[in-house]
Structure formats: C-alpha cells, structure tokens
Amino acid sequence: MNPHCTPGWAAASMRVLGLALALGLALALAVAGCAQAPATGPTELQLRQPITLLGEVHDNAAQHALRLQALQAWLATGARPALVMEQFDRDRQATLDRLRLQQPPPDADALIKAAGAPGWNWAFYRPYVDLALRYGLPVVAANVSREEARQVMREGLKATGFDPAVPPEIVQTLSDSIRESHCGMLDAPTAQRMALAQVARDQSIARAVEAQAARGVVLLAGNGHVRTDTGAPRWLTPATRARSESIGVLEEGVDDGGRYDRSVRTVVQERGDPCEGMKR
Fold first, then answer.
1. 213: which DSSP letter?
2. What's this model's pTM, rounded to 2 decimal places?
C-alpha cells in the first residue's frame, strides 16, 4: 500500500474541506485501552531534548503506546513540559485554560468534550491529556480550525495572518504529498490550496511551540507536521530549533527520507485500503 495514503494523512487533509471520511471507521478497530498497552517488539523511544516534536501515524495503537511510555518516563525525571497538541484547535485555547483552573479540576473526558476537535479518535489521546492534568502541565492547542483552514484556502496566508514567504519547493512538496495521500483523486489547484492550509497548520504549531519553549515542550502531531524540511520545524526560530528534536514515529517499511532528526519504527497498524474507501 502507498505509505503516504494512510488514514492519518487523508483524515488530516480532509479536515480542511470539512468532509467526513469513511476512513474514520478504521480507527474503531483500536479499543480505548490500546493506547495504554505495552508496545510490542524491541522499539524504544527516549525523549532527549527539552523541546521534542513527536510524530505519529494517527491510527497506530502501538505508536501511541510507545509515545505515552516515553512521556511518562520523562515526567518521572522531573520534567514538566507543556503538552502541545495538534488535536486541539487554537480557537479553543481559552476554553482549555478556563477548565484547567476550575476547582475541582476537570478530568480528561470533560476537557476533551469541551475543547477537543472533531474527527479524532480520542481514545488514543485521552491518556496524554490525563497525564497533563495529573502533572499540572499546560495543554496547548496548536491546530487551526476547519473554518480557518478554509479561509486560508480562499484568501491565502497573508490575509489570514500567516507568513506568506513560503519557498515554492515546500508548497510543491506538500501539494504532491496531499495528492498522493488522496490517491490521485484531487486536482492540482485544489491540492495547492490545501498545501497552503497545511503551511498554516505548521506555522500555527510552530507558534504554539515557541510560546512554551522556555519551559520545554512535547508536541503530539502527525509525522507530516514534524518533518524538518516542510513541517513545523521549518518555522521555528533558530534558537528554539537548536533546543528541539524532531522524531518521526513511522511504521515498519517506511523510509524516513532524512526528513527527521531521528526516527523510530513500530509495527504496521492493520487497516483496510484507504484508497478503496475514497473511491466509494
């Protein structure tokens, strides 16, 4: 199967258009407890830098288990980073902050219900939110909303407050990846507009990381967002980038292409062919 044509890539891209894909059904194959199960195989993951940009394939249960274990180990050393998450849209930050200050504090389910973006399998992300609440970590919303992404596609980056100085090769690489992840079913102009929305997401993620850089950060985002050539690392300041590490968390058989500072691999999540789902 095409390694880029995955539910994670396709679901993230389709959020721009506000379409519900049948691919989300594949996520239901992983039960809520999977995210807390021990990772299988010899793969190990250690967080080494104060700012860690931690990638994922969104529906891979083994990857979530591995990352959760790594975060727990880092917190056990006394680290108290901000938890920056792609799964919360930035227009929900005020809600997140208000709820975290409530007494008694809310549990992870209440926080997710009030501020979580639609379209995610929150069973995978609830354990991270729970850890953040238990350790008093800021939970930082990093993504742009669907409406904001659509506005970027209509009006461009500058008109929506993002940096328009994007090298053409970045836009082209993102556009090509988006077309591939949608199994060739997107026309080139639409893919180009979606690429701009992807840049907006990456810039938004980078801004969220910068705002918390002094205390340390763990970012949870798709592998595309943590790519050093086209993703959020490209938009960090040199000082923050020097203190950061981008880790691609990939499935076996996928070449990292030198796009990350470091990469680890897990078993391939069983799933149907997403291209067949799109065709239907």
1. T
2. 0.85
